[in-house]
Design goal:
64% helix; mainly alpha; globular; 2 strands
Length: 173
């Protein structure tokens, strides 16, 4: 299977609809007003960048700032600034890297663990309300398909990173 879209060949209608739905979900989930509402309900006064970093650390802690930057797709300086703010607020701490004592990793504190648990709980309860009319089987199917899709996206992204072919400039065929 090719790792790049084929120029001039349209995506299938099904894939086009999936892309449209994902765009809508992304828009809805990243609106500032939605974030502020979630933070108010969770009683966590953090911006979106700080929450993204907390979520990543919670899912795979502790990590070096450079690894966090790679996983979040941002510059290392962004992670450093955000981590410093979170450290001052008591959500994270820095710990020595066991493989290299000169390096440090970012780890959640108990306050950080409680905050991310509240954020996730409020988010899950909101999702549960929105999907209240779905059957347990439909929810299982959706979860299975979402996980499969994310795994395939990650696999495809890894293939793109290891593809030895040079990327074609935009507008060339």
């Amino acid at each position: 299977m090719p790792t790049q879209p084929l120029p001039g060949i349209p995506a299938s209608p099904e894939v086009t609809e999936i892309e449209r739905a994902l765009t809508r979900i992304t828009y809805l989930s990243t609106r500032a007003r939605q974030h502020e509402r979630l933070m108010a309900l969770a009683d966590v006064p953090l911006d979106r960048a700080a929450v993204a970093l907390l979520r990543q650390v919670a899912d795979s802690e502790p990590l070096r700032p450079g690894e966090l930057a790679n996983r979040l797709g941002v510059e290392a300086s962004h992670v450093t600034r955000t981590a410093q703010q979170l450290q001052k607020s008591g959500y994270v701490t820095r710990v020595p890297d066991p493989q290299d004592r000169r390096a440090q990793r970012i780890q959640l504190t108990e306050t950080g663990r409680q905050a991310i648990a509240r954020i996730r709980d409020v988010g899950a309860r909101g999702m549960e309300l929105a999907l209240a009319d779905w059957s347990p089987e439909e929810l299982r199917q959706l979860a299975t398909l979402f996980h499969r899709m994310v795994d395939d996206f990650l696999s495809h992204a890894a293939d793109d990173e290891t593809d030895p072919r040079p990327a074609e400039p935009a507008g060339t065929a």
